[in-house]
Amino acid sequence: MSDFVIVGAGVIGMMLARELMQAGATVSLVDRSACAQEATWAGGGIVSPLYPWRYSDPVTQLATWSQSSYLHLSQDLIEETGCDPELRQKGMYMVDVEDEQDALSWAAQFNRPMSKVGASHLYAREANFCRGYQSALWMPEVCSIRNPRLGKSLRASLEKSPRVTLYEHHDVHHLLLDNDKVHGVRTAQGDINGGKTIITAGAWSAELLKPLDINLPVEPVKGQMMIFKTPVGTVNRVILMAGRYVIPRNDGRVLVGSTLEREGFDKHTTQGAYQSLHQTAIQIIPALAKCEVEHHWAGLRPGSPEGIPFIGDVPGVAGLAVNAGQYRNGLVLAPASTRMHADMLLGREPVVNPAAYQLEGRI
């Protein structure tokens, strides 16, 4: 029997397991598939909310703490595992922003590096960006991370620890409830018991709680994306325009995303989304018209009201907690979401005030 059973081995579940393990706790990490195969694998990996000034303070607080921690986390994972999650601190351009003054005011208020730059700044660094723009907003400290490789390195870190037991390909049938207290989960392969059970199953989190008559307002929101195989240097930085973005990888590949579709748990790709994403990519970087589309895929984000995650104990059910609902910002918010939750679980002073994320009064 472990100290904690974590259900869901995406970036939230793995980072939480790592935080608890590093503090000396034992953890059973359970997933119906392999680690980091759902939203963690499918996302883009921009370590910033899109248009960050449009989010509420609770999201900004988690994002700010997380952004500064990724540099250390990335280096730690490389040293621990030899697997490079490919963190790139190259900055982000935002073009054709309607509420530009709001953005600059937000940056001044929260001390975030952001400036309005001219065409020479933009085109000197992104020569393949579409022509005709005279200015852009520039955030030089924004990073991107290659999320599949982040998942791989986090898994390797956990696998090396004797305090963590991975239960991949273990479909959870239901929570084990005895005298109004959860003490683990039942899977097809048997029961997994622990002192406290934490649901970190992303878009599927609400489904696990429904049998307890708990209505967690987290729903699946499909996002379709594609990636181009391109020469290195075709795109060098994240570029955001008209709500969509291109993201370069170290090997030259360029990712474009994404759609927002509320279609339940359907993860099928569509020809309409393919055409829309392809058109977006060429509008931002015309040179991509000559490049091969290597892959087109879809993933499910855990949508929540205002994108504010649910982090903390489930009211009225002893031994049960949740960390879910980061919506489009799972990778962005993961370090702060999991560090704060680990602090709460272990009786430490939380790095971020947890009041805004509690389930009490929100479900």
TrEMBL record:
One of its GO terms (cellular component) is cytoplasm. Residues 3-343 form the FAD dependent oxidoreductase domain. GO terms for molecular function: flavin adenine dinucleotide binding; oxidoreductase activity. It comes from the Bacteria. Keywords: Oxidoreductase, Thiamine biosynthesis. GO terms for biological process: thiamine biosynthetic process; thiamine diphosphate biosynthetic process. The keyword NAD does not apply. Pathway: Cofactor biosynthesis; thiamine diphosphate biosynthesis. Pfam families: DAO. The keyword Kinase does not apply. PANTHER family: GLYCINE OXIDASE, SARCOSINE DEHYDROGENASE-RELATED. This is Glycine oxidase. It comes from Neptunomonas qingdaonensis.
